[in-house]
Amino acid sequence: MQAKPRQPATPEQALWAMDQLVATHLVGQHEIAQQVGLNVTDLTCFAFVIEAGEDLLTAGELADRVHVTTGAMTGILNRLERAGYITRRPDPADRRRVRVEALSDALARTREIYDPYYARINELFADYTPEEIAVLHDWFRRANTVAADYLEEHCRTD
User: Fold this and answer.
1) CA 142 to CA 156: how far, in whole Å?
2) What is the pTM assigned to this prediction?
3) What is the pLDDT of residues 54-79, one digit of tens each?
């Protein structure tokens, strides 16, 4: 595949476009969370559980990823469990800890919502060469690191 001609853009224009994407995504996450009877933090936590797959995360690991206290995480897990999204399993290495697993029905419900969106994103990726996708991947990974580092430096209250 040959690269398609692209409009030139400045870093400022790219930053503005990124801000628009993030804002649209935040609004969308709020809307989807409401549709499935969760709040955005709970939905985000469930996304981390899904991402972990069979390498089940502990409640403490989830708390770190969502930037909440372990006490707040207990409340999140209670809500997710009551809503039928997760189950808690004792950690085989340390019975004082629990690991969190997504329930298959909840995973299926979530995929019904997100799969069509990801299909559209994959259609968009089809407009890019493998080299361009590699640049996008590199940029997203590095931008995520910058964002996480900034959050850690400036937004943690503990």
Assistant:
1) 20
2) 0.85
3) 999 999 999 999 989 999 999 999 99
